[in-house]
Amino acid sequence: MAGSIAAARPLRAGFSLAARASSKENNLTDAVIKPLTEVELDERIREIAGKNKMLRSFIGMGYWNAVVPKVILRNITENPAWYTSYTPYQPEISQGRLESLLNYQTMVTDLTALDVANASLLDEATAAGEAMIMCLATMPAHSTKRTFLVDSGVFPQTIDVLHTRSIGFGVKVVVADVQEAINDPAIAGDLIGVLVQYPKQDGSIVYYSDLSNKVHELGAHMVCATDLLALTLIKAPGEWGADIALGSSARFGVPAGYGGPHAAFFSVKDALKRKMPGRLVGVSKDTMGNPALRLALQTREQHIKREKATSNICTSQVLLANMAAMYAVYHGPSGLKAIAQRVQQLTQALAAAISAKGYKITNDTYFDTLTVEVPSAADVLSKALEKGINIRRVDDTHVSITLDESVRLHDITALASSFEGATIPSSITTGESIPSALLRTSPYLSHPTFNAYHSETAMLRYIYYLQAKDLSLVHAMIPLGSCTMKLNPTSTMAPLTWPELGSLHPFVPEDQAKGYHEMIKELEDDLCAITGFKACSIQPNSGASGEYAGLMVIREYLKSQGQGHRDICLIPVSAHGTNPASAMMAGMKVLSVKVLANGNLDLADLRAKADKYKDNLAAFMITYPSTYGVFEDTVTEACKIIHEAGAQVYLDGANLNAQVGITNPATCGGDVCHLNLHKTFAIPHGGGGPGVGPICVAEHLAPFLPGHSQVKTGGSQAMSAVSAAPFGSASILSISWAYIKMLGGSGLKEATSMALLNANYIAKRLEPFYHVKFVNGAGRVAHEVLIELAEFDKKAGLKVSDFAKRLQDYGFHPPTCSWPISTCMLIEPTESEDLQELDKFCDAMIQIRKEVNDIIAGKQPKDNNLLKNAPHPISVISLSEEEWNRPYSRTTAAYPLPYLKIRKFWPTVTRIDDAYGDLNLMCTCPSVEEMEAKF
Hints:
It is built from 33 helices and 26 strands. By secondary structure, the protein is an alpha/beta fold.
């Protein structure tokens, strides 16, 4: 950082003046947020973590204790080469984690017996919400059906989120015994889908084949929320007719973490794949004809479809999906089945002990969960607590116990003794806890990948084999505009895997999570100080989830004011794709606002539309600085126009890294904003998740912050939940809490200044070679630089993607491509990069421009040149003299600048054929026969 300051000192005075002229000052000082040293931070976080009580929890409800294999914990979870990478939109330098995600998809499709799975969603409850809307979206165009039937055995937090998600789409959620309700003519005639839990929340296992047939006869979809470990023993949903399966993959080696993050899985029948939300990894081929992986069917996603999308999902849970996939690879099918059988046997032993004392187990069938009828649930809970154990209170006369792979004999002995001193018998004669008709007989995880790496040595080598294929922040700057790929400090990451933070169940009594509540309160207070707002909710699990939550808060507020008819949302054409998708999900009609030729918001168009729709205008979404990388000096005026029309302003916090300590969303005129903790506040991107998207709101919106069905949270008039867990992805909040505490007020402001300074340094260095698309009146950019490449298409036939692929040869991840303008690159260096790295990147871009000049001058053909043929992996450089048919040398291709001979990251495949991958969709690990047939 010091190097950047010294290098750009001539810019500093003019830059600071420009910043003040284009934004509102915010005096974020050390008195507001006191900085801590690294040692002080460690002491403080240990003090806080020590306030959490380390009891054993067998509460269940979709959360389990996990045994994380140490080879995965150390080499995936705690490894920056895995957690600092970005979403694999540049597949040539992402083949490792793409393969791991393909393993994940294969694991899910095999276990659920469905055709296609995505690469994870945010959590089980929101996955159920996605399934509900998918059911609606796949109804015939003329259909007016709107009823989604949910079995009463579904987890209550899932039902809570379904109620929230249903509002914007006008779906009627009916919670009932589905076996009976399906016969109600009013329900049957209006049905879009049915959701069941398998096994149910009480532990019972029901065969839904007849129900599934009935649902299909009614023209609706059968949706199953299920448990991957249970599916190693019980018949898969696809085998009895489910169209969609979903759930949490957390019990595959991911700790409870007081609620998350956990990767939700989602699989569908082949006919539904083009309506499936989330990212999808597919097999394609590169220009050499070799198999290669990429993200498939991207036209389904919000960044393409915008307000026409049925989902706003962007960030998912890739790091956690990789952990779950590696868990399955490590244990293999026989290992997973052995774990499941052990859990079932211990559950049977516990059931036998409790039944012997005269207690009634209300579920005759079960895998890992028992529901017990008792005289007093409070008494049983109290006795279990005395033994250091949490179980679930269902109601006054019922308790529930869920076991998992972490359970030992002493655990079930203690559990049994809570029921009038029941003891585990030395020998057990058990009944059929899983009906024979529901026992799984079909194979799963038969691909060689799941049967080859069962020793630590083999697993370690496989992990590092994949890791070597991926570029991450351990290799180089990742200058992705609007993504803020900054340093994820090791000191903030270290506490993440401590048991005091990782082992808590999200529904433990509040007095057992005092440390978490203290940390969350401090983080919320700090975020309010940073944004200028009065209240905060950290429940949303991503930026897009935060957008949706914020808009729903606005909706609830307007309703409380008798203005519930307001349903129009104005959004600039330059906005992130999640903005219009989120507004659509919140039940709003999206109208676009024009942008001027200089990149600024067209105030005249905004004013005209605000006036025209003032009686129905609900909200205006704006990003500041704009997605074009400039501070617009009209932002406060724009907000004033909206407020005069009786509407609310949603300020997208995606670019908050350019605001902290210099201005804030409240000063700009916003009423609500979301923050991307995985951008501005140092949570790692994890290759595409996890993320956290908290919302901060003005005082009048605070009462409507989201609540939760199981834990008191939110405002006094709280809307229903937007995530499965009351505090979202709670375990990773410690990262942002620590980041803020170490920097303090002045450090946060200095970080912002450095981010702005670094971007302006790059702009000035590249300005003689590339057209910087937008600057403010002082000739400055904000925290990112938009460069225009259209002229090179006209002069040399070069697209943005050609520049991106060539940049891979220089050892860099390309900037954001073709967004927010299709012919541009958006460059964001963040404050983390020093002068040497900035100059290396600029040197690479300048050298590429010289290569372009050679093409323009005719020294290289337009169809056979360094850019069109990029990237150049070792497989290309090692071609024989007879095979090398390129008008440049191997040295020029591989080592265009001297630093590359000292340290070079090699792409592992040549450019990948996107069209082939979508036309020949394959989203599971291909067999040897499939490889031979296709490649």
